[in-house]
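Sample 1 of the test manifest.
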Amino acid sequence: MWLGLEPRGQRSAFWTYGSPVLALLLTVVTAAIIFAALGQDPAEALWTFLIEPLTSASGLPELFVKAAPLILIGVGLSIGFRANVWNIGAEGQFTLGAIFGGWLALRVGEGSGWWIFPAMLLLSILGGMIWAAIPAFLKTRFNANEILTSLMLTYVAQLLLLYLVTGPWKDPEGYGFPQTAMFGDGATAPILIPETRLHLGVLIALAAALLGWLILSKSLLGFQLRVLGSAPRAARFAGFSEAGLIWLSLLLGGGLAGLAGLFEVAGPIGQLTPSISPGYGFTAIIVAFLGRLHPLGVVLAGLVLALSYLGGEAAQIDLGLPNAVTGIFQGILLFYLLGCDVLILYRLRLGRKQPPAKHLREASR
Amino acid sequence: MTDSRKTAEAAGATPLLQLDGILKQFPGCLANDHVDLTLMPGEIHALLGENGAGKSTLVKIIYGVQEPDAGQIRWQGATVQIANPAQARRLGIGMVFQHFSLFESLTVAENIALGISDARQRKGLRSRIAEISRSYGLLLDPDRAVHELSVGERQRVEIVRCLLQEPRLLIMDEPTSVLTPQEVDKLFDTLRRLAAEGCAILYISHKLEEIRALCHEATIMRQGKVVATCDPRHETAEHLAELMIGSRVSAPDRPASSQEEKPVMLEVSHLSLKSDRQFGIDLKDISFTVRGGEILGIGGVAGNGQSELMAALSGETLVNTADAIRINDVAAGRLGPAQRRLLGACFVPEERNGHGAVSAFSLTDNAFLSAFRRRSLTRLGLIEGEKTRRFADDIIRLFDVRGRGVRAEARSLSGGNLQKFIVGREILQRPDLLVVAQPTWGVDAGAAAAIHQALIDLAAQGAGIVIISQDLDEILLLCQRIAVINLGSLSAPRPVGEVTVEQIGLLMGGVHGAPPQEQIKGEQPRVART
């Protein structure tokens, strides 16, 4: 017997959307096997990882709190990825957004004013954009690969943050901990539902997804980005500016990542610390692909990946498993997703390598 | 069956190659439908058919690139399974592909050595190359780098590479599409000499006159099936065409040449442009004008600057001086494609998928691609969906694009239908100037005739047209004037009636050193010195 791949000749619409579902199923099965290998009861461990986090009263709001940065970043990345602009450095742009917005929060301290929070939002977008502008400049001017430059800038951003919170911005009353003072009330994200951590960023993330969908599917700009991604020569033929679209993709992705960074530090965290992100900028890459680079798909995918963070925490507390469970789950998911995507262009064929000639000939007559 | 074959078979000769009921199915298309073919030693056998008739699939099966789903291959009477090209070569089958696989920066000898896996055979390779190229009239200098060679010379490298294996069967895939008329004659001499020595040749082409001049036997394919076998020397070209196409194709009405002076739509003056690609062709001091109502043909062998010229005219490459290109009397050399369209110019690039159209996009989106400015298909930065769909539908209707309507992806269309769509999209923008590269390359005869007629009609309405084509017959059919591009220089345009095919041929190959005939006359060809 022989298992082979046969080209379909065209993209399968079914598997374009079926592939992420199959990948999720395979991931759950694999996770169960890993839990069993770690000596846990697989069913119970899966329950703890995937269901239990949603059963408490704060479960659903927490899911959206975790999903908000993933969706914000994922929408920006999807738009860039559609144009074949591979911004892998959202984590760094996220950090710069937090630093830029945090600067104003620390300046005003306990001061108040309606303008403070909106100004922080704008500053964070600016910060993310500046960080993304570096790879954009290097790519359009020197044809430097944005995958490498944006990724490497992530580590620069993290070291910059570490320097600030251990140096000039360190809280003098913080008992020497590497962190800034807590942000004042005027510099904190408004809460949507009292008694939860559900903040304004969740709403803005959903609005960004809607706007992203509008841009990609209905606007001339989105059309240009899609043409650049599918056929760069056709984009040149049509007279679209490749450099302009690269700049735009990176600035958009960077701005949204910066915004996500601000909502983390002005929301759930409330101050700048050396670890403001559990890898949201990288996880958002998985979110973008799981969501099929479609802004509305990104919302669903963002919720799924958010669950992996909540599940990781639950597994740590209830089962005593290491926090790495989250990363493993995410990694397996990406692995299966890339594997299953083969089915979009190929179908599996089970059979003998050499079909019996006589049999086939009779069948075809 | 022809006389020579009857004698051969009566004498009890075994066919060199016999195909029996070859079947090959691809997703959505039966490429070879029970194909039979018999090839005798020393026979030049034409495999004739339109693009997509299944010729390439059949020879790929013979050369072991593809496996048949059913059917039998007999080689010198014995049933064989040809699993890969290496095995085909061991049997004695050589093939010269349409697209060469040569390393530009290596020399001729190095390229040939790379194809030989057995180290012992590489000994004395240079002298064997020289010997073969001398005895078959394939002039080659083993020490020259491939990027210095003309396309015709590169083809000789591929042929010599095959001949080193001493093949019993040589397969040639559309060998003359890249050659000047003089080079074609020389190639035919070589092939006839090979055949006289007993090597069979399977010659794939859709050029009827060539086949009538060269081949002893022809197998004609249509839609995967063999529709006829005949002796092409005893058939008229018209009859062969009918067999190949399945219906009569009418020639387009000749454009009426008007005497009155129409306005100049395109003026190119002293256009020079350095290519930014390695081994690209620099454009050198190109000048010509095109008036309304006129079709100018630019001929030439592939790779002599056609794509560079197209990019310079369309604005995909900007030129240094704005005045070098004037469209509708506006200096356009520094303007991109978008602004040139607004000046009244439209373009059809050579490559359909990925350049003229986005393969994965629907026809609606592809209609929008280049037409949204001139047809104003946007409002407030948003795409006007309904208006775009109607425009796409107009193209499909008026240009008889057969497919599954406006929602079909571009790649689901056949080459001919997609080309009709692209040409239609540009023509319906009512351009004053249309620049078309290879309008009917890889297009079936019916679609080619429709495209030719559409271009003539557009010119009759007063637009100026530039056709950049490697197909000399096409230029002679459509154009009032012809110029030839060679190594980035353009000859002065001349009225089609005043030049002979031989003169055009010399222009096409002239600048590659001395014309080929004079090289042959020399007692000591260049290779003999090595």
